[in-house]
């Protein structure tokens, strides 16, 4: 009589479109493993009533009583050492026997929802329920609570370095790696579920894990909200993956180790250290547009609190911040944060207020400038050639422009010559000669250099020299340059109308040649060129 041996069950749990079928094919190559494709699918369709084009066929051919599936198929007798069950997390419906999770080895396969959503939506309309990421997190949490923390593997790792990823997974599952897992034959397989014609078209073309194109299809805007809902679940699982695709840089050792579990006030809430973030769109990130105070606690009291708040509010006023919280609101934030952290003595507070000011460019009708009293930095202090984002020097000038109802402000150098505006370089035309200040006290703008080349190509005379304000006031034409605003005609400076108050002929000529240049020049990936060609054909 053949010796009966217990088959050990390996459960893979994932969202759909996470390379779970590829991974099943990979395990099917092992000489010691049999695989089962989504054994709980019929159970899921029966219990939820979810529709699929193959629903009736599937219900007639597959066992739809989940507990029978668990007992007879998943944990039923087997012929090989291992049985690999591919599961989609949402198919684990309530009411299934506890054995499902208590027995066997489990692991979690994750994939960035950015990739899942695009792929899923091609077959069935996506929804939060359909992705089942919350179910995947529940499975992870339950297994952890039961003391069986499952390994988590990211699908991208399988694509980037299949052997290393599979070796790592096998090690985590405590099974030997087999090199046969790296390749399989193309085409449908006998183990495929009957839904394969709908879902497995591309995996049937594959013979192994392959790296996808670096540059992929544009992400559909209609899936954006779903992406936002799904990402926190993916991120939570990813942060618990044993092998990190992009391992975090080692944390510098903290001077006060207890600060690792710090709670931080951001906006109107208290958050753990790792969640305490500001947006990349915030002005403090974009231009250093913020003011701050450092305060200290001694014996349960904030030392010189009122003095620090006076300076904070004065600084915010000097930078013309809007929507500044009240003194009471700031105090509440300070004391709530201290209480939550249990910090009553010898603690240091870093208090930061930030703000945002929008840029303005009108390249058809032109813009108005005023001269700011704030000087552009000299290389003695902070070299304007560095394109740093500590923009307060320019922001102060911009505030002067805002207060004078102008679009931007001209900034002078330390000797009173024009350097640039708070956000752009500046040019003038006088009697057919184009002039711009040297890049000593201004950013050597890339658009500035491009326009200087165009001026020469248009056979115009270009002078790069110190230009005084009165020369700008009395110019025939003035424009500013920058990547954001391109060439913006200036029609008024400090109340003086420039030329005849309309966009001048040289400005228009250079705007045209600039537009032509931007159509032709530039760097793109081959993929982008193909996409734009497809779009252009679509429009025909
Ligand atoms: C102060 C300042 N001047 C000029 C420019 C224009 O530079 P570019 O033409 O390289 O965009 C910028 C752009 O960021 C700027 O911040």
TrEMBL record:
Belongs to the class-IV pyridoxal-phosphate-dependent aminotransferase family. One of its GO terms (biological process) is carboxylic acid biosynthetic process. The lineage of its organism: Eukaryota, Viridiplantae, Streptophyta, Embryophyta, Tracheophyta. InterPro entries: Aminotrans_IV (IPR001544), Aminotransferase-like (IPR036038), BCAT-like_C (IPR043132), BCAT-like_N (IPR043131), Class-IV_PLP-Dep_Aminotrnsfr (IPR050571), P-loop_NTPase (IPR027417). CDD domains: D-AAT_like (cd01558). Keywords: Aminotransferase, Transferase. This is Aminotransferase, class IV. PANTHER family: AMINO-ACID AMINOTRANSFERASE, AMINODEOXYCHORISMATE LYASE. Pfam families: Aminotran_4, Sulfotransfer_5. One of its GO terms (molecular function) is transaminase activity. It comes from the Eukaryota.
